[in-house]
Structures are given as C-alpha cells and as structure tokens.
Amino acid sequence: MEKKDLLYEGKAKILYLTEDPNLLVQVFKDDLSAFNGTKRGKFDGKGEVCNAIATYMFEYLENYHVPTHFVKKVSESEMVVKRLEMIPIEVVVRNVATATLAKTYNLEEGKVLKYPIVEYFLKDDRLGDPMINEHHAFAMGYATPEEMKMIGRIASKVNAIFKSFFDRRGLVLVDFKLEFGKHDKSLLIGDEISPDTCRIWDKKTNKKMDKDRFRYDMGGVDKVYRELYDRIVSAA
Ligand SMILES: Nc1ncnc2c1ncn2[C@@H]1O[C@H](COP(=O)(O)OP(=O)(O)OP(=O)(O)O)[C@@H](O)[C@H]1O
Ligand SMILES: [Mg+2]
After folding, report:
1. pLDDT of 66-111, one tens digit each?
2. CA-to-CA distance for 155 and 158, rounded, in angstroms?
3. Are strands 186-189 and 171-183 parallel, antiparallel or unpaired?
4. Are residues 94 and 53 in the same domain?
5. In terms of domains, do 14 and 66 share one?
6. Are 212 and 135 found together in one domain?
7. Ligand 1: distance of its center to the CA of 145 in Å?
8. Is the dihedral of CA 154, 159, 164, 168 positive or negative?
9. Structural domain that includes position 116
10. Residue 122 domain-assigned?
11. Percent of the chain, pLDDT > 70?
C-alpha cells in the first residue's frame, strides 16, 4: 500500500494517508520519548522491533475477537491500520503497583494488586495528561457513557488475555496503556501495544523489559526490547 500525504507525526510513530480513505500506514520510528516528550532518545532497529511486537499482539487479540485497528504488517517498520477518529483518553490497566500508583497511594513497589485497576487520563501533553474518570469523559464530551462502558470492558478483557500470555512466557504484565478510536461507529483499539506502552517484568528476576529502562537510564533498552520480542514469539 502506497503512502500518500502525512497525516500526523508523533514522537514514536508517523501516520500517512493512503489511496483508501479508510486506511492509514503507521510507521514506527526509532525514537523513544518519555515524560510527555521532555526526554528523548533512539536506537537503531527500534521501529522494527516495536512494529513486530505490535503486529504480534494485535494478531493475537484478533483470535479473541477483540476489535483493533490493525489490518496488516506491510514492511519491517510499517503496518496498515484503519483510520480512526481518536478518543483523546489514555486507558491504563494495572496489575502491579509501581511508578505513580505506588507513589500516590504509598504502596510497596511491586505489590501485586488484589484486582486490576483501570485508570483514564486525558491525552494532552500541555496539561500533563491529567487523570479523569468516566464522568469527566461524558461531561467534557470526549466519549458517551456507552463508549466508556465498552472501553472499560475491552481494556479488562485485553488485560486478562495478555496477563496469561506473558505469564506463559515467564513474564509479568505490570501495566499497559491503550488508546481507542471510532471507525464507522465501531470502537477499536488504536495506536500500538509494545514495550513502549506496557510495563513487563521478568517473573523470576523482576528485570524490567520495557521503556522504564530508558525513562530511568537503566541501560540496555535495545537489548531488552529484542529479548522481549524473542520471548514473545518463541513461546508461540
Ligand atoms: N488508527 C489510527 N487513526 C488515527 N490516529 C491514530 C490511529 N492510531 C493511533 N493514532 C494516533 O496517532 C498518533 C501516534 O503518534 P505517536 O504515538 O508517535 O505520538 P503521540 O501519541 O503524539 O505522542 P506520545 O506517544 O509520545 O505521547 C497518536 O496521536 C495516536 O493517538
Ligand atoms: Mg503515542
């Protein structure tokens, strides 16, 4: 599929229009960003490894009838996706306390939560992505009550699917972020699912296998992204 005009260039991906108004090409860049874009980095091959992981994850969700924007992988760092009207809400699901959650509620880092927590954040870097609840989302017109209900359900289902997926690979799904959008009235998962958007720890050693290595200058970010890809695919 041929790329036409640029639609949007973000920090980690670029979206291009195509000859089909319903489809976009999503290009994964080698760039890394954290803390609302204030910290930047990159490594060679990052786009390829994230595209490969996101492809695997979206195809896996298809088997469970979870609706996503994914159509097909078309090159090492590009996938075709359905064009969405994005809902500017980041949906976070947490299984283990870490980062902001641990700090805010004074929970022990690494504490396994009794029940998964679903959180919503308004996707707005200038406001620092403030936390919102369903009522903010309805009241400010970002989504309807029905859409928020569906979003919560899909996010919980994705969590259940990937929790056991990672567990079988000796990994813990600590938390992850999803973005949703609308395509012909249906609600689909958009954006990406990758080590940029998930926290994944090794079950035995608690080694961090995700973007936290970049956020907190732990080193070896390229190595763990590739190792994660190998572990995801090898247990298939
Ligand atoms: N299928 C889609 N249709 C339209 N827009 C999409 C689709 N999937 C993802 N997007 C949007 O495309 C953009 C992808 O860019 P990217 O993730 O690089 O940057 P960002 O989200 O602006 O910044 P960051 O991820 O660093 O916070 C996001 O704004 C995302 O919401
Ligand atoms: Mg993004």
Report:
1. 999 999 999 999 999 999 999 999 999 999 999 999 999 999 999 9
2. 5
3. antiparallel
4. no
5. yes
6. yes
7. 23
8. positive
9. 85-220
10. yes
11. 99
CB of 13 sitting under 6 A from ligand 1? yes
Q: What is the pLDDT of residue 129?
A: 95
Ligand found nearest the CA of 32: 1
Residue whose CA is at the smallest distance from ligand 1 atom 13: 10
Ligand 1, atom 26: nearest CA belongs to which residue? Answer: 11
Same domain, 216 and 146: yes
Alpha-carbon distance of 195 to 170, in angstroms, equals 16
Q: Are residues 94 and 201 in the same domain?
A: yes
Q: Is the CB of 151 under 6 A from ligand 1?
A: no
Q: What is the model's pTM?
A: 0.97
Q: How confident is the model at residue 236 (pLDDT cuts 50, 70, 90)?
A: low
pLDDT tens-digit series, residues 150-176: 999 999 999 999 999 999 999 999 999
Phi, psi of 157 (to 5 degrees): -65, -45
Residue 32 has pLDDT above 90, yes or no: yes
Q: Whole-angstrom Cα distance, residue 126 to residue 115? A: 32
Q: What residue owns the CA closest to ligand 1's atom 10?
A: 191
- pLDDT score for 67: 98
Give the mutation target among 7, 15, 125 for probing the ligand 1 site: most ligand atoms within 8 A of CB.
Answer: 15
Which numbered atom of ligand 1 lies nearest the CA of 33? Answer: 26
Q: Answer whether 84 contacts ligand 1 (Cβ < 6 A).
A: yes
Instruction: Say whether both 31 and 43 belong to one domain.
Output: yes
Which residue among 179, 182, 192, 211 has the greatest number of ligand 1 atoms within 8 angstroms of its CB, and so is best to mutate? 179
In three-state secondary structure terms, 81 is strand
- What pLDDT score does 200 carry? 98
Query: Which residue in 68, 24, 25, 39 sits closest to 178, CA to CA?
Result: 68
Atom 29 of ligand 1, nearest CA residue: 10
Number of domains in the chain: 2
